[in-house]
Amino acid sequence: MISPYAAYAFDSLFARLTHKSPIGLSRLKALCGVEEQDQHCPLFVTWNTITDDAEDKSLRGCIGNFGNLELESGIKEYALIAALEDTRFEPIVPEELPSLECDVTLLKHFEKADNPLDWELGKHGVRISFSSSHQQFSATFLPDVAVEQGWDKNETLDHLVRKAGSRGDWRNLDIILTRYQGIKTSITYGEYVTLRGQLGLK
What we know:
Largest sheet: 6 strands, antiparallel
Strand content: 25-35%
Shape: elongated
């Protein structure tokens, strides 16, 4: 079943780039047969470029917020920020739409870990914070990142420290780690176009 949240994120970018009217989350929920759920939670939106056979994909943008966001406004805001303002990439342009996949990850069950290894690969996302040389650092990976990259816990922490902007060894840092779980839903451009067709839209 297609998620209305991923569809709404894709629709937000589609409407911005094509200057068409947005569909709206409530309409997509009705189409997908999804009842109202928790309307506030932290979330991340990820854009990937996929090949024709959908076996290979590469990151095109990913930004989110750990605040307790209202879902409709939060998904729209971060769908656009991840697509257009992720400084690691050029802004997405209309010609790229057919090659895109959009993921929305709703974050739940935040827990402070007893130590930096107190989490499960594939189950938990991890967020670290630490200080070094009188500077504060922080970074996060969503639950699927380590598994997709083939990292173990030690490698994940190494990459997190680098992502945070530090070159120290995580074992020598006073890391505070928060683990969390995510509900991830995805949609491709083709699936999004099919939804538009079901609503009589082109």
